[in-house]
Amino acid sequence: MTKTYDLTKGKTTSVVLRFFFPMLLTNMLQQIYTIADTMIVGKGLGDNPLAAVGNMSSLTFFIIGFSLGLTNGFSVSIAQAYGAKNIERLRKTIAASVLLSTVITVLLTAVSIIFLHPVLVMLQTSEVIMKDSLLYGYVIFGGLFSTIAYNLCASILRALGDSKTPFIAIIFSTIFNIVFNWVSIYVLHMGVEGPAVVTVVSQIISAAICYMKLRKIEEIRLTKEHFRDNIRIYLELLKNGVPMAIMNSITAIGSMTVQYFVNGMGVAYTSAFSACSRYIVLFIQPSCTAGNAMSSFTSQNYGAKKYRRIYEGFKVCMAISLVTYIVFAAVMVLFPRFLASLMLNGDQQIELARGYLIRSGLMKFAVDFLFVVRSGCQGMGKPLFPMISGALEMIMRVVVIVTCTERFGFAATSYAEIAAWIAALIINGIAFAVFLNGYLEKENTEKFAFRKALRRA
Hints:
- It is built from 17 helices and no strands.
- It has helices spanning 12-45, 47-55, 57-83, 87-122, 127-142, 144-159, 164-187, 193-214, 231-265, 267-283, 285-303, 307-334, 336-343, 347-362, 365-379, 384-408, 411-456.
- α12 (307-334) packs antiparallel against α15 (365-379) and α12 (307-334) packs antiparallel against α17.
């Protein structure tokens, strides 16, 4: 029988770090093979195919981010049930998560494929890259089931305290991805569809490995009964999952608005923006991982009503984010031209990317800290403020890119990102402080009342 991992016991720092590092390696490997994809496409096929793949990034995040928000929301309910040691509720929650994810997969696949072309036209996609953008998008969205399957399986494992199995899964899928991306372009002479197909197959491999581990866990062994009479649990899952999904999708709308303006500047700008976006996603992974650790740690301890422990975990995760900000901001500010030249060929594209990396690198602390406080709110079952912050992110991106593009040109894209990060950090930071302080006061009151009752006895 395979064990699960209780995050409500043991020294906080060591528990968080043991959970954090395998997940960090998982996320970094995922981004490394994304960067490898970009390098192989950019160097093997040229800047225009790279622009086509990059042009799909905001739209891909809109669809995949929605599904990821749902599965992450589901994992909060799963972790809370596990933390409370309510095994029957745990099994029913997982069963309901599987059924909801299946329905959502079918709907998202159909919608994304049907509306792909109209949305790309709306985003001012150049005719030069339209064909490749469509080809890449149809393959990725057609294989959406693989992404959702992996995200769900990995989210369940992390909710149960297991961050090692997703890491093992990503090792295999990363090796497969990098090798066969190279083969698809340099040996089989495929276009952008090659890396897209390889990405889907890689996700299938990851999902299969995680599923095999889940089947061995006795605490979540499901029967037909666990799939019945789950209306209340469905509502709870949707309560946690839908706001997080909406938050991701609203944020993606802001990103698509920025993409719209970038595409209007020309293909060279689209290429530079694509490369910068890849680096931003890569360099925020440690703090994003700290946020994921904060979510699982908070959820289990919230279920166990150990609120003081949540605060201790928060301090550890914030320290991780601070260290990673210092390291990666230094890389972005000191070596921007080198980073840009790894993906891009043209001098204009490299210079555009250089400025973006310096500006966003200096202010990256805002998004690093945002991941931790936002995940803390979500882990306590308070998804409303993260959703509101997602709307605020969208508003800030749209307002800044609309009002500043004429004056600042391509630099407005980085200003839009920075403004969104800061606004979301303020909202989530205040919400997390208020909620946690309330639970800490409640815990102290209960302890005082218990001790007073003991003295009377």
